[in-house]
C-alpha cells in the first residue's frame, strides 16, 4: 500500500518555516539562559558540597551519602509527579510559568542555605531539608521548562536548535564553575568556603537574571484543545513503559549516561595510575568539557542535514571508536591521550542533544494517537534514565575495577590490575555507546513523518477550537 505522505509531497508542501526563517536567535538565547543556574548547580552539589560539609561541619561521609541517596529516591517520585501536574495545570499565566516561578523561589532559598551556611545552624537535618528543597526547586523549574522548549516550535529542526541553545548555555555555566575553583586555588589555596560561596553566587545571581529573561522570551502556547485526561498517577506513570518510541529514547539515554558516568568516574584513576600523568588528570577533564561545549552547534548542523536519529547514531558510533582507541594508548605518552580526549569532547554531545530533541516529537505522536498532551511527563522521565544510568555506572565500574585488583590507595598496582582498569575504562563506555546506537538505529519518527503528525494535530486543534 502506498504511503499517503511521501518525501516529495513533504518538500512541496512543507508546513513549517525553513531554518533560516525560524525563531529569533536573541529570543532563543534569552530562553536558553535559564539552563545556566540549573546546570551550574549540578557539579558543586555532586563534587564540592559533600566534601565541604564533611570537612567543615563534621558530618560523616556515610550520613552524607545516605542523604544524597534519599534525594535520588525522592527525585524518582517527584519528577514524574511534577511533569504530570504541569501538564494538567491551566491558569491565566499558562501551564509552565507558574511552576518555573515557584520553583525558582524554592531553588534560590535552598541555594542560599546550602552555599552560604551559618556554622551554628548546620546539622544533618539542615543539610537534608536544604538538599531536598534545592532538588525540588530544580525539578519544578527544569521539567516544565523542558516541556515548554518543545512547545515553542513544532518544526522538526527548530526543536534541535532550541535544545542546542540550551545545551551550550548549560555547558558554559558548568565550565564556569569548573574554572572557578582552579582560579581560587591560585589566589586563596585550600579556602573551601570561598570556593563554595563563589559557586553559590554564580548560581543565585544567574537565577535572578535568567528567570525574567526566559519567561519574557516567548509567549507560552495555549493548552491543546483536547485537555489531558486526569488519570490516577499510577496509571499515568504506567503509560511511560507502554510507549515504544519513548522507551527506545529513554533506554538509549540510559546507555549514554552509563557510558559517560563510567568514563567520568574512572578518568582520574586512569590518567593518574595507568597513564602515570597525575598532573594532567584535571586538565584533561577540562579539555574534554571545553570541546564538548564547542560540539553542540556542530552536532546540531549534522542533525539538520541527516536527521536526529542518524546524528545520534553517528555520534554514538564515533564514541565507540574513540573509547576502543584508548586500548592502544601507551602509558606516559600524553599526545595520543590528549587527541582522544579532544575527540571524546567533540563526540559526547550528540546523544544527549538529539535524544532530548526527539522527546518533543514523541510527545506529538502520543497526542495525535491518544488525544492526551503529556509533554512535561515525557521530559520528566529523563531524570529517571540519567539518575539510573549514573547509579548503575558507579555501582558496577568501581566494584569491578576493585575486583580486578586495582587499589587507588596502594603505593603501586600490579600490571594486571592496571590492565583491568584500562579494560573497564575503555570497553565499558564503548559497549554502552554501541547499545545506545543500536537502540536508536532506524528510529521511525523522522522529519517527514513528524511533519505529517504536526499537520494533523493543527487540523484537529483548529476543528475543536471555538469559532472566533
UniProtKB/TrEMBL annotation:
Keywords: Cell membrane, Membrane, Transmembrane, Transmembrane helix, Transport. It comes from the Bacteria. Coiled coil: none annotated. It holds the Pfam family MFS_2. InterPro entries: MFS_2, MFS_trans_sf, Na/Gal_symport_CS. The keyword Transport applies. The chain crosses the membrane at residues 99-119, 125-148, 160-184, 196-215, 280-299, 376-401, 421-445. The keyword Ubl conjugation does not apply. PROSITE patterns: NA_GALACTOSIDE_SYMP. It is a multi-pass membrane protein. It is found in: Cell membrane. PANTHER family: MAJOR FACILITATOR SUPERFAMILY (MFS) PROFILE DOMAIN-CONTAINING PROTEIN, MAJOR FACILITATOR SUPERFAMILY DOMAIN-CONTAINING PROTEIN. Belongs to the sodium:galactoside symporter (TC 2.A.2) family. This is MFS transporter.
